[in-house]
Amino acid sequence: MIPVFKPHIDADTMKAAVDALHLGWLGMGSYVKAFEEKLTEAFELGPDRKLVAVNTCTSALHLALLTAGVGPGDEVITPALNNIGDFQAIGMCGARPVFVDINEHDLSINPDLIEPLIGPKTKAIIVLHYTGATAQVHRVLEIAKKHNLRVVEDAAHATGTRVEGKPIGSYGDLSCFSFDAIKTLTCIDGGAVVVPRAEEANDLYPARLLGMTQPNERLYGNSRAYQFDVLKQGFRYHLANLHAAIGLTQLAKLDEFNANRRKYCRLYNELLAGVPGVITPTDRFDGASIFHYCLRVLDGKRPDLQAHMCANGVDSGIHWMPGNRFTWLQDCRGANDVPVTDRIGDEILTLPLWSYMNDEVIHTVANAIRSFYGQPAL
Ligand SMILES: *Cc1c(COP(=O)(O)O)cnc(C)c1O
């Protein structure tokens, strides 16, 4: 079976993991410092911006929302087509999502629909760069500024994506990244939050470490202090050396991962062009890190196509069931007013996309789809 995701674990990653284990300091330490520094460089963060590594993107989103001042009874505007981690992070603040619809052309937030949803309890807007291609984040930043709201960019799909030439994290407000088991850059588990002001990072260092006022320099030197204070609520969100060591080897290859993935997406588009009954993604791949290739399957044929692909040895995924369909979230504001999400939620299909694929695999996947629609193999 050709899997949807296949992380690239090579000899460099294996060696880094073994080296980190040999170091003997398994918790947060020198590798985390190096990983934060390399990410800061890769994302071209200016001197005021700070990147804080954490254990998952869900943790990063939680910390970003707390930084945005989201608390009990508040609301956060988010596209209904989003990861469960985003909804849970909102819930962890005691707040509720407010669902906004997406654009047909990029499957990301539709900025025109945001303002009517802003209410007295709204604190933040989440912009997801769906698949890793860019969302209309600058429009959202303008709206947020006008209403004094914070913007959290979910860049879990978009590690290395540039928006108008600038890497996500280097402009804008708060940004969150995922390095989980299936993401383009994997730490096995890992995440990061970028804050636009150093003072905000100073709050996050204890927040990620159970609230402890441990000096960073000490931890980054593979040691810890036994005298410390706890100033406020904190979480066990820090990243371990082993994970950071793996991430460093992945980051060194990120540009190649991303260039390959763009090339494979273009080949899919070429091989699937003209197949009736499907819509291929618009080529907005330039400058982007594409995490998944999202095909749209029309006329309710998705379950049959998936079964046919499966019978031909090709797995496929659905990212995701829209949030307004979950029992827990059905009563959120906006849940009944996202018609594009409702329709597209039944059409989206994730095709296999890895950082290193050979053309034969891509042809096998495309031909499994083509044969379902009675098209000759290519
Ligand atoms: C994977 C993902 C997350 C959650 O990331 P974790 O690191 O697994 O917590 C959040 N948002 C999006 C868009 C994702 O794809």
TrEMBL record:
Keyword Transferase in record: yes
PANTHER family named among the record's database cross-references: DTDP-4-AMINO-4,6-DIDEOXYGALACTOSE TRANSAMINASE (PTHR30244:SF34), TRANSAMINASE (PTHR30244)
In-chain residues carrying the UniProt-annotated modification N6-(pyridoxal phosphate)lysine: 183
Biological process according to GO: polysaccharide biosynthetic process
An MF annotation (GO) of this entry: transaminase activity
Alphabetized Pfam families for the sequence: DegT_DnrJ_EryC1
Family designation: Belongs to the DegT/DnrJ/EryC1 family.
Stored InterPro entries: DegT/StrS_aminotransferase, PyrdxlP-dep_Trfase, PyrdxlP-dep_Trfase_major, PyrdxlP-dep_Trfase_small
Residues the record marks as active site: 183
Keywords: Aminotransferase, Pyridoxal phosphate, Transferase
Annotated source species: Brevifollis gellanilyticus
Name of the protein described by the UniProt record: Aminotransferase
Taxonomic lineage from the root: Bacteria, Pseudomonadati, Verrucomicrobiota, Verrucomicrobiia, Verrucomicrobiales
